[in-house]
Structures are given as structure tokens and as C-alpha cells.
Structure prediction request, 1532 residues.
Amino acid sequence: MNFDLSETQKLFHSTVERFTRDVDVAAREKIRSTEHAYDTNRWSELAELGLLAIVANEDQGGLGGSLIDMSTIAEGLGSNNALDPWLENGALPIRLLSKANKTDILDSLIDGTKIAALAFAEPNSRYNLFPNEMLATAGHGAETVVLNGEKRFVMGGALADYLLVTASDNGVFGIYCIPSDSQGLETHRYQLSDGSLATVVSLNQTEVPASSKLAITFEQFKEVVAETCVLCSAEMLGLSQLLLNDTVSYVKEREQFGVSIGSFQSIQHGLVDCFSELEQMRSMLYRTLLLEKDTTADWSANVLGAKSFIADGANFIARNAVQYHGAMGITDEVTIGHAMKRILILSRMFGDAQDNLNNYLEVA
Amino acid sequence: MNFDLSETQKLFHSTVERFTRDVDVAAREKIRSTEHAYDTNRWSELAELGLLAIVANEDQGGLGGSLIDMSTIAEGLGSNNALDPWLENGALPIRLLSKANKTDILDSLIDGTKIAALAFAEPNSRYNLFPNEMLATAGHGAETVVLNGEKRFVMGGALADYLLVTASDNGVFGIYCIPSDSQGLETHRYQLSDGSLATVVSLNQTEVPASSKLAITFEQFKEVVAETCVLCSAEMLGLSQLLLNDTVSYVKEREQFGVSIGSFQSIQHGLVDCFSELEQMRSMLYRTLLLEKDTTADWSANVLGAKSFIADGANFIARNAVQYHGAMGITDEVTIGHAMKRILILSRMFGDAQDNLNNYLEVA
Amino acid sequence: MDMNYSEADLAFREEVRSFLKDKLTDRLKTGVERTPGVFVEPDIGLEWHQILHEQGWISHRWPVEFGGKGWTPMQTYILEKEFAIANAPRPAPISLGLIGPVLCRYGTPEQQAKFLPRIRSGEDFWAQGYSEPSSGSDLASLSMSAELIDGKYILNGSKIWTTHAQHANWIFCLVRTQVSEKKQAGITFLLVPMDQAGIEVTPIVSMSGDHEVNQVFFDNAQTRLENRVGEEGQGWEIAKFLLQNERGGSCFAPRMLVSIDSLEKAANNIANSDGSTMNNDGDFKRRLAKLKLRALALEFTELRIQADIANGRPAGPITSLTKLVYSNLSQDVQTLRNELYGYDGLQLPYDRPLYADDAPQAVGGAAAQVSLASFLNGRASTIYGGSNEVQKNIIAKRILGL
Amino acid sequence: MDMNYSEADLAFREEVRSFLKDKLTDRLKTGVERTPGVFVEPDIGLEWHQILHEQGWISHRWPVEFGGKGWTPMQTYILEKEFAIANAPRPAPISLGLIGPVLCRYGTPEQQAKFLPRIRSGEDFWAQGYSEPSSGSDLASLSMSAELIDGKYILNGSKIWTTHAQHANWIFCLVRTQVSEKKQAGITFLLVPMDQAGIEVTPIVSMSGDHEVNQVFFDNAQTRLENRVGEEGQGWEIAKFLLQNERGGSCFAPRMLVSIDSLEKAANNIANSDGSTMNNDGDFKRRLAKLKLRALALEFTELRIQADIANGRPAGPITSLTKLVYSNLSQDVQTLRNELYGYDGLQLPYDRPLYADDAPQAVGGAAAQVSLASFLNGRASTIYGGSNEVQKNIIAKRILGL
Prediction:
């Protein structure tokens, strides 16, 4: 029984730490105000550090990292409130293409020259993962497929060279990997709470090669989603640790009525509640990482239960961190709000705490 | 707009106050250890004070009190943690018989010479009010009815001269007012959390006159239940006020670390949360008392919503009162625990907070 | 105990309703609905201000001799409730709710004659200057100085969290005119014109992207002696009056109830994961019902306070309770609303105003678009006007006697 | 990071399981299930104690030289978990968990030789004497006095909340041997025989009807000098060691998880108001699932602490966290359980034990019958062994540095 990080994991953690620590709130604002709300040089650097390669299998040119390895990276990104979309535009699409063994495109994602985004959310399906509104039908030739429909909440959509679009072909699930400049494809960009640019994607008679359909089943897709949910949990844990650390420091420094506000018992006890949540979240993450995959469905349900628990804790900590920062906590000038806003996205990605809990009920 | 009590209501309040204030924990224990866990001389006194007559209409020999009048009494009983079963063996059965205009028996209940108890709860129906297991069938003569089935949670069953038994006659609702020594009637006594004695009542081929069926519909029964829920709410409000008062006094007196524990901010803020709940509960009760009865069903649903809200608040206050009393709060020697135990009954009578909330959803 | 509307009350309610039907334009309502901030933008707020001024209702809560209406608490509550139901803009509270009542109570006849009509007409727009960077909950520790030289006060220091200072032409300031043992002493209340070289306004953007508050720097700024309210050293007394006024006689519940109802309606049209709609989701319905019960209770708490005031019993520290209950409740409503919108609730445009023609297109409707920004701004409600912690200290001490 | 069982661990688990299969009788299990108190009655507890003693496991956590087993933290956890799953009685914690370890650490060889074997055999049954009526959380303010006269300490004062003192033949007491400036100084740790004229035990009945605790009065009671543990004035150090031991290396989660699973099973057979059963009630299921997630997290928090200990990193104040998390969680589980039983959950018999032949007949089953008494006794879990408030103070100071 051992919960310590391995030497490799410590190395990844310190790599992430070095990569992210210098992006303060001002630097963040600057990057977010650029055209794509992101500096792609950072993406290249991230690739060079091996943080993308770790996601893919070794026989695919990756480093074949474990979920624990990836979780270490996600937690590290969280604990510095990194603005890099490693989770949604790195780990998630690479994991999907790796599972489908789509090596031609995978190479360009691993080396960071291309970026992909997953288009899964539909206007009238809330958190249901199965595509109902994006429809795939036979194209003019036997070798093409035509896509029609709308996707929302395409995270990093403004950055993406490729879109991985989930669609239904007469009720059969498919993911289509298509260039983001495909004909008939229209996008509307909008800002998410972490300052990144998502898109609404409309496909109107978009004809793509049949080979763009990935070799992946709905069950496999859900497994990758569950793995991503573990990474969401890890990043939320990192963010929560950051929020607690910053808040404990703040209440020690901030003076009111001639004493530090950290000397008030109500604030002390409130922060102990946060600490208690944090440690329970950490335990839940560890449990999830060490969970045996008896059946994929049971494992996924357990993962979603864990994410539900961690999401509730992270939001609890974030709201208290804002409260104890007082008016400063409401401004865009301190890290607190940015961390809270990222938690909102992570806690709702692939279902909010309530929805994830409903999934967990199947195995609870 | 005026939320003050009328002079009559103030009079009732002070009558209740005088009647109940001398029953301290020791006196309570003594009464509870008697055969029926109650001193029926108190019941006679209660009748003499008019606290039973107020429930019935004037043309039935009652005083025709309003729901506000009765609520004043219930709150007063709560605020002294009275052990008198006025609510469940006074107001509730008298209200039912009054609605059914069953004057022959009503007289003896109003003057306190007889006591009645409602047998409504069934083993496999949880909080459903409609009787499914107690069945009424035709008797030997045209003028008799035979009852078969089991009831539980007959509050004050050990005291009762009459039982008001809800039953189904081929799906038609009925309440049968039968003597508690009817043939074929067996009881098992058990102690409830407030120290009173409830019974399990089994009826085995119990033949009663057809005239024992009250002239009351299921809708009218539910209306009386809703009125009783208002009284439960009022008594819980009184109990909560008592709990808060006692706890505020206690933390002022109790010294630890050389200061009164009431000087600790965490306890102060916890008690403010209790105070906040209490005032919101009071407002909710007043709202309910002043609510127009557009339709009986809507009114009932609103009443149950209010009870749900007040029950949650009362349990919250009770648990904090115990906590802030420390180990003393766990003993049977202080009022705190007795008040908490009565709240448990009231908050669950005719449905717990969750069940009542589900009823409220119909009009929320 | 009764809560019956009198004939006069019912007639008054009709009057308010018909006024709103006539005067509250779609433009104004849209302005309110699509504003995620705590306060409406001046273009919406001032237009409505003018309409209320023409109607003679703008300063209805002031003493009658200064333009108040002398309505009963019940009438005031009826007006607020009808305005809430209609989703009318709230006129700038700093001018009408803070400095107006202060001048009615503490101003000289000259100050009253000069300023009060200009507040009513909307000609003057006021900012508040009490908090400073190092004095938040501990207001009395403020350090901005004012020195009286040749009939003018010279001001140095800064004020923070000043709402809409970028739009204001006057600011009232609590300043230190004397350094004394007891920090509450030596505080003075000054009225300061904004249009002068010694004043600089720096925006503070909130995490919602809204620019509602500012830091205001005073570098040898000036104001005339005649702009002092009360005596030197009387500032703390005036500040307490002002802050109680900020909390007193609240009417939070009606807007809360309207907001909860709108949430219920919205749920009818939002898909659930199982293909049904959210108004069929048992958990959502129970959460909503619990919020509604809290709001209904709050309404009666507010009515009880109004009834007490009407019966000559001043509200006192119980107003800390309505602030506390309201601010927690409003955050919970905003949370549920934002969660209702699912992925669409994660959009957070920084452009303002969102009702402008060139504003970003909403994803999933206008209500979804403002939802997150409203939620984020709403986190301030447990902080401003005395944080939850401060309100609890007040109640513990002044009501529970701890 | 790994949590794999070694071959040895798996073999050990088998050994524990087969031991339980052989030795844990239905009578013992029923005794546990039908006991609403925090501790089992001695007739059940001592029977199990004997069985464990024969197996050589009774004092498995003690140092090896005094009868401990020297198991790894993982093995200890395996044993506790299997015992929890099997619903085995918990041996008296005062004897084995408190005074035993104190004597191993601070006792003289003579004391160790005399008392430790009698604890292991069950011959001695100990009560704890630390709290006094006016010293609860503030233990150091204790005032019971002991004066050394002619080789004997003469004791005067009283101790309260002494668990099962009515069954004990020995009590350990923190007493004041000197009145000094610093109240922690002058406290001494004495072992006192109960069977003497100067000691009177008065029962304290809890609101559940259980008689688990007592007040013990000392009126010139005596104990020999040789029954002093450590030096005069060393009592506070020993008390701190003892209280940390009370909280350290906890294994709360397994019993919690078993309890939650039993709740889930019970729900299968309890009718809902709509004619369905409670295991189909969405709200119940979500509440239960949330409790289960909290318990699963707690299990890993406890395993993390065990792993730290195994890696030579002492647990320290983090044990305050498991106490805090556990006590809140256990109350919430008891609340849900009691609510599950509906009206049947309101019965509260005062007769004990409930597994006796002449005990009152249960309404709705044995589990329903104990449910409310368990809930009421469980309210103590956030109070004893350092209240929630005290645990939070400890964490704030020692972990967060506030």
C-alpha cells in the first residue's frame, strides 16, 4: 500500500510546474485577449515536454502513460490554474484517436502541429452522450458520408484544425474526424467562463470521406469520456488545493479590526471545512485511480460518482475562497475567480454533479 | 397588515403557559412512568380550560375557534415542551368528529371524559393516507360492518376510549368510530420517542354498527389532516423557540477555557443560523395561517410545503441545541433531548419533510 | 393577525399596475433581463428614473417634505412587489437610497435645496465613497484624509468599490479629519464634485466581465466647506445611519419569487438528458420548491418587519437577518438557474451591454447568456453591505446577547 | 501508487474470515445488531473478548513485547474491515485502546506485569476518569484532588461521562496533585480500584434510554502509591498520549460502508407511499449514494494515513480530520436510516437489552426498533473524544497554521 508518486510522476509534476508557474493573472489576460484566446507557441512547448505524447500508446509514437501519470499532469495544471487546454484539446482527442488507432492524424496531434476538438454536445440533449441531432447519411459516392446538424460547447473549437464530431447513422454511433475548414461547416465562436473560445458548429450537407469515421464504438467512446472525467477530477483537485492555499495565505495577511481575519474562528472553521473536503476529494481521486476495471460500465459509473463528489467539493471550496477574499475575490484581478470559473467548466464537462450522480446510482 | 395576537389568543397563550410550565423534566419522567404514560387528571383540567372545546363548532357545544386560535395553543404547548397529547388526541379527533357532526360522541370528548385516537397508519403504506389494508365488509345484519386489518402508530392508543379507524370498503374510504374494547380488537403498546404509548391495533372480524361510520369524505379527512399539520408546525415552532432560548442561556453560562462558550464565534454564528431558521419558520407559519383557501387541495399542498420547511428547520435547531449543550445535551436530564424527540414525531406525523415536499410539488 | 388588503390598497395596486402597463417599455424590460450586473446601466436606469420622476414616484420613500409620498408600509410593499413582477429597472440606489435620505436627515437647508431636486430629476448621479483598500468590514479604520484650508477641504487618499463612479458627477466620502484614539471619532462626511483634476477613476473589472465598481484616487482634490454634511467628527454617526438605511425596510422577496417563477417556466423548455424536459426532473423540482419555500418565508419576514414599523416598532438589527437570508437565497437561486442551463450556462461574454445591437449572439437564448455572469456577480451579495460574517456578528451580539 | 494485496495479506484475510466463520455466533451478531448504544453490553462484549483472547488477537495493536501482533497497517486494516463486514462486537475500547497502550508506554514493569495480562484475559474491566462536570473540552481545568498521605493517595471529587463504570473494577483518573499557575501542570495519572467504600457510581441515562455513562463520586477514596503511572505532574503528557491514541490510526470507514449497504438492503423491503418500495425512491437513492461516496473517500483517507504510518510518517493532527468526517457521516447515515423506517422509526423502548427474551416486541422488525435509539446515541459522536468544534480548532491551528 503506497500512495506516493513514482519518480517519473514527480518529474512530470515538476515539468508542469515549470511550464505553468509564470502565467500570472496579467499574462493570462493578455493571452486570452488574442485572436484564439491562446498562444499556440505554448502548445508546441507542451508537445516538446512530452505532455501530449504521454497520452498515446508507445506503438503509436506515444509514451504510453498510465491514467495515474496523466492525472498527475492534470492535477499539476490545476494547481497553477493553467490556461492550457491540455485536457480538452490534448488528452481527450488524442485518447480517442489512440483508441481508434488513427495514426495518420495522431502524429500531428502528438507533435503539437495540429490541434483537435471534440464536438459532442447537442442543443436538445443536455448531458446525454449519444448523438441524436447530428445525422450521418450516405454521400454521393460509396466512399463519402454527409453530415448534418449542430453541435455546441465545442471546447477549444476556435483553435482546432480537426473536429471529432459524434453523429448517428440511423442510430449507429460514429465519430467523424473532419478538418475544421470542411465545406458546409459554419462556426460561431463564444467565450467560456475560463476565457477560452468554444464554438457552435453547424454542418450543412458536409460531405466527408467515409474513412474519416473512427474505428471506435459507443462503449469505447464512453470509456474515454470516463478517463477524461478522471482528469477533470484531478484538475479540480489541483485547483482546489490552489484555492485553499491562496485563501489561507490571504486570511493570514489581511487585517481588519487590528487583527488578521484568519484569527476569527468562523473563518478558521470554514477553512477547516474546505480542508476536510479537499482531503476527501484527494482520497476519492486516489481510490478512482486504483479502482479495478471489472467491467467498463461499472468502472465508468464509479468514475462518474467520484467526479460528482469531487465537483461538489471543488465548487464548495471555490465559493468559500471567494467569500473569504471579500470584495477582492469578486474581481478578475486575483487567481481565485479564474480558478472558480475553470472549476465550473470541469465540474460540468460530460455532466454536472447531479447528472454524474445519477449515473453512479447504477452501481452505488 | 397585522401579525399581533388578538386579546383572546393572548389569553389562550397564557392559559397554556400556566397549565404547562410546572412540568419539569423530573415531573415529566414521573408521569411517563405511569401505566398510560399520562395523568388523565391533566386531561380533565385541559378540558376545563376550554382547550378542547375551542376545536369544535359552537353549534356542537364547542367554542368554534379559528385555526389561528388553535395554532396559538399548539405553539404554547411546544414552547413549554408539554407532554399533553392535545394535538393528536384532542384537536385531531375532535376536528374529525366535528366535521362529521358526530355530536353524540363529540360531547364526551369536549368535556374530557373520553379520549379518542386516530388509527390511520398501515404497515405497508408508508405515508399514504388512503387505507389499503384495513378492510370493511358487510356484517351479518344490514346494520353492521366487519373490520379486518392492522394499524400502527396509533398515537395515544393506550389512553383512548374510542378509535377512529380508517378503512376501505371496496375502495370507498371510511372512518369508523369504535370503542377501544370492541370484540376482536387486539392491541400491542409501545413507547414513542416522546415517552407516550402508541399501539399497534389488530382488528379480527370486529363487527360494529354501520352507524359507527362517520359522515366524512376522504377529501374532508385530508383537510383535517392538513389542519393538524398546521398545528404540528405551530408546536414545532414553539419547541424550536424553547430549544434556542435554552441553548442561548446555556452557552452564556457554561464556561470552558475561562470564558463562556457563547463567546466563541463558531457557536455564535451557529446560533445565529438557528435564529435565522426560527424566524423564517415563524414567517412560514404566519403565511400558512393567513393563506386563502382557494381550493382545499391547493391549500393542503401549501400547508404540507410549509410543514416540510418548518420540520427541516426544527430538526436543524434541535440538533444544534444538542451539540451546543455538549454531553449534557445527550442525557435525558435536560429539556433539550425531550424537545428534540417530540419534534421527531411532529415532523413525521402525516409524512416526513421529504414526503410533504413531494405533496407541495403539485402546487409549487 | 390579518393581512387583508384595504380598498385603498387594492386601488393603489391597480394604479401601479396600469402605470407599469403604460410606461414600462420592452426596451427597458429587455435592458433589465439582459443585464447580468447588480445594477442596471445608466442608459436604462436613467430613462426609467425620468419616467418615475414625471410620475412623482422617484423619491417615494423620502420624508414627505422632501418629495416623499408618505405611503403606508403596505403600499410601499405593493409598489415594490408590482415593480418586481413587471421586471422594472431599479433606480440607482446610491442616489435615492443612500445620499438622499442622509441629506434629508443631516443636510443643511441649503444642501437640501441644492441637491435633493437634482437627485430626483436625475441631473446628479452619485457615487459612494466609504470602503478603502485596507478597510472593508472594518470601515472605521479608514484613512483617506481631508484638511480644511481656506474654506476648502483638501482630500488625499482613495476609495474603492465605488459603484458606477465612472458615470457619477458627485461622490460622498467618509474622510478622516482628525487622527484620534478612538478610530470612529475624527470621521467626517463630505460631498465632493467628481469633475476636477485631483480625482482619477480606475475601473475594477469583476470576474463576470462587468465594470460596475472602481477605485477612486484623490490627489489634493477639493470640496468647499459648505459641502460638509453635519459637523466635523459626525461622519461615523451619519455612516451608521446610511448603512442601516441600506439594509432597512427591505423588499427582497418579491424579486426573488419572480426570479424563481421564471426559473420554473424556463425549465419547461429545457431538455433533460433522458429526452424529457427539466420541469419533469424530480431533483430539480424539489430543489426549486425548497427555494420557493425559503422565498415565501422571507416575504413574510419582510412583511412582519413592515408591520412592526407601521405599528411604531423600529426594525433594528433584524434587518441584518433579511440581508443574510436574502443573500444566501439569491445565490442558491442563481446557482440552480446556472445549472439548469447546462453547457449553455458556461458561456461568459465580456462585451457590454448585452442588449446592444452588436452584442455577441447568445447560445441557447438570452437568459442562458447572462446566467453565468449573474451568478458570478451574485457571489458579492454575501460580501457587500456587511458580509455574512459581519451580519452574524451583529445578530449574535444585538439580538441573542452573546 | 499502489494498493495491491500481497500474498501474505490475502492469506491473512482468509485466516480472519475463517476465524469469524467459526467463532462469531448468531447470538453475538444479534447482540450487536440489537444494541443501540455506542458500546456493546458486557455480556456480549466479554464473550467475544474471551474468544479473541484465546485466538491471541485481543491486544493485536499493542507493542509485540506486551502481547501485540506486530501486524502491518494493511493487515490491521484487513482485520478491522473483516470484523466490520461480519458485524463482530467491538471489544471494550477503554481497556484495550486507552489504558493498555498507556501502561505499555508509561507503566512500571510491575504495573505492566500486573495489569496487562488481566486486561487481555478480560479479568479486569476499566473505566475512564478524565472529564469532570465543569471540564469538558477544557480538560486541563479538572479539579478532582489527590493527596499523598502515608503511601496512599486520598481522592476527592468526581468524574463524569465514565463509560460502563457500573461494570468496571478499575478506573484510571486524571487528578490534581498540585494547584499551579499553569493548569496543565500538577495533573497526575492514577489507577484506582473501584471496589471500595469511598466510590459511588451514579447512572446517567441518555435520551435514548441507554445507561452507558455515569458520574463517579470519590469521597476520600484511596489508591496506593504504586498505582501512580509516571511521575506526579506527568498526567497531562499521558493524557495527551491517551487522547491521541483514542483518535489515531482509525478504521471507521469499513463499519460505515457495511452500515450503508445494510441500509440499501433494508430499503428493498420497505414500502414507499406510492406502493413501490423505497429502493426505487430517487431522492432516497441519491442521498444514499452521496453517503456512500463520502464513506468510500473516508476509507481512502484512512488508508492514506495507514500508508503514511507504514512509511514512518506519524499521523499527527490529521486524525482529527477522520474523527470529524466520520462523526458527521455517521450521524447522516443514522438520520437517513431512521427516516427510512418512517413511523416505525419513532418507537423508542427504554428496556435493555433488546436482545433479551423478555424485551419489548419490535414494531416493523428489530432494525426499526433500535434505529431511533441509535440515532439519538449517535448525536454524541460529534461531542465525545473532542467535539467537532475542538477538532476544527486543532486542524486550523496545527495544519492550516491559523
